[in-house]
Here is the input.
Amino acid sequence: MKNSVLVILALAVTLGLGCSRDDAEKAAATARESADAAAEAARETADAAIDVAAQAGDAAETAAADAVEAMEGAADDAGKAVKEASAGMAADAVAACRSLAEKGAWEQALAVCEKAHELLPDDLGIEHALQQAQAAAK
Here is the structure.
């Protein structure tokens, strides 16, 4: 009887170990599948992050190009405004110089004719008015 109990116990232990080994193999397979699924999810997440980063880089480049274009446009507009203002000042200075010269108000004409001559150095009428204003100022 002792021998049969020992045999039964040996069979029970052997069967118990066999089931445990199968369970362990199933658990290991499940763990491998879970690890593989997690690795795939991580790869997909990394790929998505790379795509988002690329899109952000493209958006930043586009924004920078737009900003440069806007700055260049603003600089062009400012240059045009300065030219228009200068042209307006030149026209005002020339008109004032000529008007004062016609009146013979040489003392008042000196500063205005100097400015007009700076703006239009090749205008002989302004140069003549300037010379007369300079002579009168002496």
Q: What stands out?
A: Confidence is low (pLDDT under 50) at residues 1-15. The helical segments are 2-103, 106-119, 124-137. The first helix runs from residue 2 to 103. The two ends are 148 Å apart (CA to CA).
